[in-house]
Write a structure and sequence with these properties.
This protein is of the alpha/beta class. It contains 15 helices and 13 strands. The N terminus and C terminus are likely disordered.
Length: about 400
Amino acid sequence: MRCLVIVLALMTMFLSPWLPEVRACPDTIEPSPAVTAMPASTTLPVRAVSLDLSDLALPQDRLDRLEQRMRDAGVNMVGLSAGRLDWSGFRWSGKEERWSAGVRESGRDLLANATQRFGRWAHVSAIVDVFAPRYLQTRPTQRALDAAGHPIPYQASTHALVNGSFGDELIAMIDYIARHYEVDSITLTELFYYQEGYGADDLALYREHSGRRDWPRTPRGSINIDHPTIGAWRSAILARFAERAAHVAHTHGKQLFVDVRVHADAPQHEGRRSGHDYALLLQHADRLVLWNYFGLNGTSPEYTRDIAQYVQRYSADRIIISYGLWADRNAVVSATDLQRAMIAGQEGDLPHAWITPIKLMKDEHWQTLTSVWRSAAQRPPAATPPRQSPDR
């Protein structure tokens, strides 16, 4: 027996380099007691673009050409629309009535096909849109109300999100994607409240958090939506939801990104009036994607530098700046202005960029991406600053 044990031990030592690595099945991973953000990679600057459901439904030859163009430009992260709670871009088992038209008509799982295509060479993030007009049409009591009491047809109330069935179903959607699709991260978009969310159920939550008996009011008696106590309450509530979403994503080995707003006048105000306190969200999210939509906000492309310099306190590696191509009056941001903004971001030591939407990109925009990113790659890398505690 002793000789047999010795022989087996020697065989194991000899064969171990050739034995396959044993990996735990994701479904067996036990969630950690406390939800913490997963470390973001510092290897390469993020160079992302996003595709919506209509892009994912393009014929294969057009997707082939688009993919090649993305690779030629240096893209290394692709955001893929997973749709909404009521309009999914994937074949959600048991929720067939919620499949989008592109899924039903083509018979394809748009998210699965795109993940397989782009995941071979890029980080893939499934974008989950929080708006749900079809869902709320049949559940009107869960709709958000604006400050004048009018219903918002596409947005659920704050209460429905954090304490209601709407939020539970949204978490179930995130769980389904994280469990069944080979994506690297989940991105939450449209998760904000500013002019929305002033119903009686929301007021009850606000009173509980703030200790006030009523909404803050203007001299004329209307709700003062810019009062800091509302922004502080919204931020705490949305961070609570982000914690639930992060727990689900991390359980399945995915990261969680959250789209956030940027103040148009002063970066230090962040997006707090919309419920986007960066420090609170970063307690759970792995990265924030800042909406630098200067074409809509009336800010200059160079304002990007101020934003980039401000967010250094949160570690630049956890912040991606999203450069929106939308402009006023249905116009498109010019390639020149996009270049100015991207260079300003790099001058502020924030190299991570996300361009959206891809359908607005023209030849000159692609040329801008290639030029700016190639120039950045030729410069010596800047030292990564140490992680600092947020300055509140």
